[in-house]
Amino acid sequence: MNKPKDVDDYIRNYPADVQVKLQQLRNTIKKTAPQAKEVISYSMPAYKANGVLVYFAAWEKHIGFYPGAGAISHFKDRLSVYKGAKGSVQFPLGEPLPLELINKIVDYRLHEDEAKAIARRIKKANELPRQILKCNNRRYCSRFNCQLLV
Asked: Is the pTM of this model over 0.90?
């Protein structure tokens, strides 16, 4: 299969029964994370907010869902009925997709992604030169509601 140009093109390359499942998965992700941008990354559909939230891919006997190690670890009890690895899970084509669980995983990834983005912003702010703002020898002062100035 050639590299798809978008998610519609990706889904179109599979048999009708697989297309239905891929579309269900896509709709669930889009409903849970409407602000996420749909992209093709590593020749798979991916959904990005601040970073990549999840990927998915169709295979011969399953649909691979790739939310990352943190999400897999967090939902390990509910995902234990499926094959998987550190950052992925395999949903067999012969079974219905666990859409409610996928919804919760995507929601978890949204929160995880936002937390990482905030941490990056704080780290970047802390790397600014020391002369920027000091209030009582501190960078932040909740008592006077000081903010970093650039």
From this structure: no
Amino acid identity at 138? R
Give residue-wise pLDDT tens across range 43-92: 999 999 999 999 999 999 999 999 999 999 999 999 999 999 999 999 99
Residue 30 lies in a domain: yes
Q: 16-32 and 99-126 are packed helices; what angle lies between their axes, rounded to 10 degrees?
A: 50
| CATH for 71 | 3.90.1150.200
Domain that holds residue 38: 7-126
CA gap 110, 73 in Å, rounded: 16
Q: Cβ(90)–Cβ(62) under 8 Å?
A: yes
113 backbone φψ class: left, alpha, beta (φ>0; ψ -120 to 50):
alpha
